[in-house]
């Protein structure tokens, strides 16, 4: 795996030439596997002999993984993404209440108002020729603002939390940088938890603290910080990538944009096709077979760290037909994408991500229907990670 990230689809083609389940070398010469095929990934995500707890990670338990390994946070953070069975259900039960359809619908006025306010600022930030970085001024502050509103995180922390999130999901940073980012993220979130302990509010952090105090086995201190970290990162990085990837797709497929602007398709159609065609997450770490596991003809040894190849699965021709590489918002009758997960670990923030992205795209292109990229697509700088799939900047010309 290239620690520098880049376009996942080129890497997917190279990996798929070896099979839908294939061995890979992770940073630090750690042996792993990636599952790329849609059907193989769907089976793997719900397989009873696959776990997420780091106790099943053979190399980690053998002391072969250095503290500064750039993917170590994904493996060891204490929270829902590294828990199984009853522990997973315990940690997910309270947090999921913040993402119910009712709670998300209650957030709609805030999302709409914030989107409108950011678009006003977008015009103000544009240069004389109408060029502005859509990522910095719109696609990033929208999901960051919403998730921090949900968590009760003060706005003064937003920029720092995003920077640290970028460091944690990066796969090309040094061990010292990785350790420093994790330590500072824990420090910032501990300050957030302390503020909410002293002054509780109607937010998820306050609710988790209350649950911990009412019943000591609900959230340990480490689980509280781990859950906050995961919620902040997953709650804004993925939606940020979803919005920017959808804008890039529509700018490259003006016929599809015209179709939705004319009412021939919906913004929800745009979001679902973007999730399939250019998943916000390329390869998500980690799951571990609890025994030697045969998957689509390939044996994955017990305890091997496995990446879920969401971006590859979304373009699997066996699931989506020979035109799987085409962006088509009218696509029907094919397999449902897996980009938000599958099974017990399905993304509980999916309803919120869909609300934010559909609202963002509708308001953006209604106000600026001629919006287009200000530089050619191949020149957009990619995020230095094979986990996240997005760009570092998205300069656009608002009036085309």
TrEMBL record:
Keywords: Heme, Iron, Metal-binding, Monooxygenase, Oxidoreductase. It comes from the Bacteria. The keyword Heme applies. Pfam families: p450 (PF00067). Coiled coil: none annotated. One of its GO terms (molecular function) is oxidoreductase activity, acting on paired donors, with incorporation or reduction of molecular oxygen. Belongs to the cytochrome P450 family. This is Cytochrome P450. It comes from Streptomyces adustus.
């Amino acid at each position: 795996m290239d620690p520098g990230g880049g376009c996942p689809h080129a890497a997917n083609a190279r990996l798929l030439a070896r099979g839908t389940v294939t061995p890979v070398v992770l940073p630090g010469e750690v042996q792993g596997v990636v599952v790329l095929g849609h059907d193989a990934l769907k089976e793997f995500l719900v397989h009873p002999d696959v776990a997420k707890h780091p106790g099943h990670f053979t190399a980690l338990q053998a002391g072969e993984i250095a503290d500064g390994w750039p993917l170590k946070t994904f493996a060891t953070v204490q929270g829902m993404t590294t828990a199984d069975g009853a522990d997973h259900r315990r940690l997910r039960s309270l947090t999921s209440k913040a993402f119910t359809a009712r709670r998300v619908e209650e957030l709609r006025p805030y999302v709409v108002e914030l989107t409108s306010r950011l678009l006003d600022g977008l015009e103000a930030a544009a240069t004389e020729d109408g060029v502005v970085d859509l990522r910095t001024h719109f696609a990033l502050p929208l999901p960051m603002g919403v998730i921090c509103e949900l968590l009760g995180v003060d706005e003064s922390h937003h920029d720092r939390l995003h920077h640290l999130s970028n460091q944690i999901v990066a796969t090309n940073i040094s061990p010292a940088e990785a350790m420093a980012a994790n330590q500072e993220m824990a420090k910032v979130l501990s300050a957030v938890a302390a503020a909410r302990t002293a002054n509780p509010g109607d937010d998820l952090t306050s609710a988790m603290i209350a649950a911990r105090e009412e019943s000591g086995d609900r959230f340990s201190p480490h689980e509280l910080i781990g859950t906050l970290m995961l919620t902040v990162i997953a709650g804004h990085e993925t939606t940020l990538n979803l919005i920017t990837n959808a804008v890039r797709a529509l700018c490259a497929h003006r016929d599809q944009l015209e179709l939705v602007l004319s009412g021939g398709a919906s913004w929800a159609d745009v979001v679902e096709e973007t999730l399939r065609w250019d998943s916000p997450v390329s390869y998500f770490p980690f799951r571990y077979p609890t025994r030697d596991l045969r998957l689509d003809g390939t044996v994955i040894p017990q305890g091997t760290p496995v990446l879920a190849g969401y971006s590859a699965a979304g373009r699997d021709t066996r699931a989506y037909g020979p035109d799987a590489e085409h962006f088509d918002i009218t696509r029907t009758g094919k397999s449902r994408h897996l980009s938000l997960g599958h099974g017990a670990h399905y993304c509980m923030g999916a309803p919120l991500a869909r609300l934010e992205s559909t609202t963002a795209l509708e308001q953006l292109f209604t106000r600026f229907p001629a919006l287009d990229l200000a530089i050619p697509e191949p020149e957009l700088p990619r995020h230095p990670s094979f986990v996240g799939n997005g760009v570092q900047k998205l300069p656009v010309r608002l009036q085309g």
